[in-house]
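Usage

Read records sequentially. Each one opens with the input sequence:
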Amino acid sequence: MKNAQQLLGSCIRAVREQRGLTLENLAEKVGISYQYLSGVENGKENFTIQVLENVAQALKFPLKSLVSHAYETAEHIAAPRVNPNYFRDIPLPPGLNNKQLEAALNRTQAIFHLIDRSMRLEVDRPLCQFIQGNNFSGLVSNILSDAMDATTLYKHNHHQKYPDLYYRPVDSAAVGLEVKATIRVGKGGESHNGHSGWHMVACYKITSTGIQFLHIMFAVLNGHKTAEPDWKYSGSVVNEETGSQRTETYVTTAWGTTKLRDGSAYIDPNVNFARWRRQRRENSECPDHSIFYASSPSFPLKKTKPKRQSKTSE
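and closes with the structure output:
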């Protein structure tokens, strides 16, 4: 564990770099040598309260915030990572595997962790205090799509076109992947087009240092114009409280939502999915990779006790 001298020195360096200042720039503002400042940042030089106060003033960063952030950063220095044991063996989109998916999820969480740390540095408040769940998911899906582009074979299509990502193998047709994020774990898909193809729904929670993914689903969904659609038109809804109006939206049917839940590639064991509704078309059986499959070794369904029948008088 770093001591106070090392913690404060690391924090001074982080703020200085974020301000775009060199050692020489900051040392000149404080009135000390850059060699001494370098020793302070490395935790090798002692310093007085007056020196620390002068550094904080030169950085235009409150001394109280500098000290508190130094200790907060020490506790939350590492970005949260997804648990590799929570991944499941399911059919994934062509060219994608769990290792690539894990890298994309970790990269996304790391980016939001970095944003949180920057917010604490600049305004002394965590990112979660600025987030409204209903308008944050779009940003999560965009950054996740970018992380998929960086860590997998799926590359950007166009930010205003369907689908979000494309995998273009040499010997076969291109495969598209639409990416959506939501804070509602187990929620079905939502789209502005309701097209056919591979869809990914990433469910997350907002934490004190960023976000944490809880549930990732994949499925090939039938478009709303097909004979057996997995999408239904939900219109353009007006929010009664704010008066704002959403754009044209399609949501998955009960069949489409079940398909997505069957394709749970990653799921935190604390997610209680046993009571989730599921509906299948006639002659459609539960696939053996589904979380609902009776003999699933990873996530067996809990048996519920039969309801006690009330006694009736004869």
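Summary fields computed downstream for this record:
- The chain has two domains: 4-75, 92-267.
- DSSP finds eight helices and nine strands in the chain.
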